[in-house]
Amino acid sequence: MIKTENLTIGYDNEIILKNVNINIKEGEFVCLIGDNGSGKSTLLKTMIGLNKPLSGKIIIDGKASIGYVPQTLQVQPDFPATVNEIVMSGCLKKMKWRPFYTKKERELASKYMKMLQISQFKHRSFSELSGGQQQRVLIARALCATSKVLFLDEPFSALDRYATLKLYGVLHKINRDDNVTVVIISHDVETTLRHATRVVHINETIVFDGTKDEYMQSAFMKDYKGGAE
Amino acid sequence: MFLASIVEIIQYMKEPILVGILLSISAAMLGVILVLKRYSMIGDGLSHVGFGAFAVALALNQEPLFVALPIVIVAAYVLLRMGESKKLKGDAAIALISSSALAIGYLVGNLSNGFSADIASYMFGSITTATTQDLYYILPITALLIILFIAFQNRIFAVTFDENFAKAMGIRTKLYNIGLSIVTAVIVVLGIRIMGTLLISSLIIFPALTSMRLFRRFKWTMWISMLISVVCFLIAFFCFTKYSSAASIVLVNLGFYIIATIVSIIKRKRKIKN
């Protein structure tokens, strides 16, 4: 569904990762693991078109549209934006040149707001919400943009444990029931691995790419556990 | 009595009134976006660049608008991009560019023919001298801006709120930024003649801030800021006829901003009580 071919990523003259070949298939729950500065975030940003690749190709399956959930959104406190306006903005790509949203798009937005349990905040201002509620809004927006694949860049790093676990539950459900492919970066490796079906570990290059079960048996996991004890 | 004098003013000042209303509308519309993108200072910086360009044009005996517009458009794009760059300190760059441009303008004015009255008028502006020609410029621009806003309001919202997400969705954010630079430059350059270099940025920023105090929806904030801007202009124009029009407009805007702030504080307190 999303494939990279000999992808080299970085900024200007600085190469961060070379010859990345990943092939993400439909329905997978992919977890990108790596130390800070390993390039996982740059890789994700390059895959969704926020960064230009230095060389190589990214091939996105024709029907796939991308939904992106950022880490946190630094929005100034009095930014006039209601939850409804933000979630609806995920439908923009469907609009082509129409200036206004149609009923169908409004229904789609309401469906996802219900699913993420934010319907009651519909007319509240984004900045009034808690961190967990804000991330729910951003996930709902991303889902409006795609029914195929979600890219999440440390989406829960600013949340408390309880909110994080609940949102992982939401992602799990979306992945399993609605067959939405999930690609997530998280430093909370343990929790992410509970839901992941596939792991890509990056450390200067891609050092591991395989199923979760394989990863659990691998040397990386022993290292990780060894470090924890 | 008061009514009679208003009728008289309207008769003699058709162009200034219309130009003022139209400029208020387009400046306010632009202002909401600039404030939300944290680019408020760019409007201020550009007005100084505009002043420099006007002064150079006068010295060279060229049509001021044709010299200033391209220069300010380029400056606008450079400044907007700088605001995004992590390497450069955007605010320092703006201060640098704007004070240099002001200095160049002033020196050129001195060198050519002393500090002429024309250059002085670019400092503080003068609405009463607005001509039919000003109206010919500002009318199509304001109309175009309103049409663009209605057609693209959802896109404008998305890009302003979260540029990265919009980009990931495939919206051409670069085009949007270029458009924003051009519009900012045009409004600033046209506004300098009316509001003056020193005060044009407040016409852009104030109505947006006032409206943001009162509304939570992007669309309403936008429309109401235009309304506030026009109301402030009309109050300043008709009630403070004896004083500098630009300065009165700014002060009326300040008054509205203070009122809106008080209203929003009272509203919040009530909400907490309930």
Please give the largest β-sheet of chain B.
Answer: none
* Beta strand % of chain B: under 5%
* CATH topology label of chain B: ABC transporter involved in vitamin B12 uptake, BtuC
Distance between the termini of chain B: 47 Å
Please describe what this structure looks like.
- The complex is a heterodimer of chains A (229) and B (274).
- Chain A has 229 residues and is α/β, with parallel strands linked by helices.
- In chain A, 36% of the residues lie in helices and 25% in strands.
- Chain A folds into two domains: 110 residues, Rossmann fold; 71 residues, no CATH class.
- Chain A contains eight helices and ten strands.
- In chain A, β7, α5 and β8 form a beta-alpha-beta unit.
- Chain B has 274 residues and is mostly helical.
- Chain B has a single domain, classed as ABC transporter involved in vitamin B12 uptake, BtuC (Orthogonal Bundle), CATH 1.10.3470.10.
- Chain B is 85% helix and 0% strand.
- Chain B contains twelve helices and no strands.
- In chain B, α2 runs parallel beside α7, α3 packs antiparallel against α4 and α3 crosses α9.
- Chain B is globular, with a radius of gyration of 19 Å.
- Chain B starts with a helix and ends with a helix.
- Chains A and B meet through α2 and α4 of A and α7, α8, α10 and α11 of B.
